[in-house]
Amino acid sequence: MPGKYLAIINPAAGGGRSRKLLGPALERLRSAGLEIDTRETPASGQASDIARQAWSEGYRKFISVGGDGTSYEIVNGIFPVAEGAEQPTLAFLPLGTGNSFLRHFNDGGVEYSMEALVAGRSKRCDFLRLRHKDRVLHYINILSIGFSADVATLRERRFSGWGEAGYQASIFVCLTRFRRRPFPLSVDAEERIDRRPCLFLTFNNTKFTGGTMMIAPTAEADDGLIEFVRWGPIGRIGLIRNLPGLYDGTHIQHRLAEVRKVRRVDFHLDAPVDVMVDGEVLTLHCQTLDVLPGALNVVV
Questions:
Q1: Which pLDDT tens digit goes with each residue over 31-84?
Q2: List of residues 6+ apart from 49 with CB closer than 8 A
Q3: pLDDT digits 0-9 by tens, 140-199
Q4: Contact 280, 72 (CB under 8 A)
Q5: How many whole angstroms separate alpha carbon 155 and alpha carbon 240?
Q6: Most exposed among 112, 168, 193, 255, judged by the fewest C-beta atoms under 10 Å?
Q7: Containing H/E element for 138?
Q8: Which residues have CB under 8 Å from 244's CB, separation 6+?
Q9: Strand pairing partners for 297?
Q10: How far, rounded to the nearest angstrom, does the alpha carbon of residue 30 sit from its chain's CA centroid?
Q11: Are 144 and 153 in contact (CB under 8 A)?
């Protein structure tokens, strides 16, 4: 069992295209000598339950078949039960709509991921642990609060079936509302609590979000650090002018942008806030965020 992969499949990923493309991909991998079992997620959120049960059965290698949301669920099924135990391995068949985590390593998509699996090419990767008032969650890519989370939340709740048009509509609506507010926090045990208003905060393990937006251009997935990006209270016109910079990473050169590499974040929030975590929209009362260095083996 330890040498065998379990492919956890989100059949709805990519508008259902994952189911169509999966058969030939698995046939190719198995013909190359990989042992792969498969299980489908019956509903949203079920990949975590499948991964947790599989870990108890002895599986230690997993393939995420879907997008960022599927890998997020698998990681949260593996951890925290795997903390301090044998290191798990996570590979990818990126058949979903968003694969920001993989883009950090290469933009070759499915072909690149299959080559990595066949070659057995892997590296250790950090992941981040967020404690909030209800429980603990883990992620491998990004946590965002503020404007970026507002856009993701609105798209999820009002424009989920609109595709790219829904994303653009969400940006437009959020621009009309345009809330700049404080999210009090402190980092690395500093006494000072930062209560300055801002447009957004992101806490990154890798460079990309939303597929191609390079929010954290200097992030590294194996440095044991959280890439903390803060964009201060920029105005509407300033944001519109600087939107292209979010795709090539030059937004961090703006005078209101700050980038810090930290090990721990303590939140001092009065109430829950909307957040976006690896493409998933949640409302959480965040408490602490830290990094678990090299705790996950990723096939990339």
A1: 999 999 999 998 777 999 999 999 999 999 999 998 888 999 999 999 877 666
A2: 77
A3: 999 999 999 999 899 888 888 787 788 788 888 998 888 899 999 999 989 999 999 999
A4: yes
A5: 19
A6: 255
A7: strand 136-139
A8: 250
A9: 89, 124
A10: 28
A11: no
Cα distance between residue 86 and residue 68, in whole Å: 24
Residue 148, token pair as written in the block: 């970026």
Backbone angles phi and psi of 144, in degrees to 5: -130, 150
Q: Are strands 286-299 and 122-132 parallel, antiparallel or unpaired?
A: antiparallel
CA-to-CA distance for 213 and 279, rounded, in angstroms? 13
| Termini Cα distance of the chain | 22
Task: Copy the structure tokens of residue 280.
Answer: 């998933």
How far is Cα 33 from Cα 38, in angstroms, rounded to an integer? 16
Provide the pLDDT for residue 18.
63
Residue 141 burial by Cβ neighbours in a 10 Å radius (0-12, 13-18, 19+): buried
Distance CA 181, CA 239 (A): 15
Alpha helices in the chain (DSSP H): 17-31, 46-57, 68-78, 100-103, 109-119, 147-158, 164-177, 236-242, 245-248
* Sequential DSSP letters for 205-258: SSS-BTTTB-S-TT--TTSS-EEEEEE----HHHHHHHTTHHHHSGGGGSTTEE
Distances (CA, A) of 40 to 18, 44, 48, 232, 245: 11, 11, 12, 43, 38
Could you report the per-residue pLDDT of 198-251, keeping only the tens digit for each? 999 999 999 998 878 899 999 999 999 999 999 999 999 999 899 899 999 999
Q: Is the peptide bond before 80 cis (omega within 30 degrees of 0)?
A: yes
CA 247, CA 210: separation in Å to the nearest integer?
A: 10
Question: Tell me, what amino acid is at 271?
Answer: A
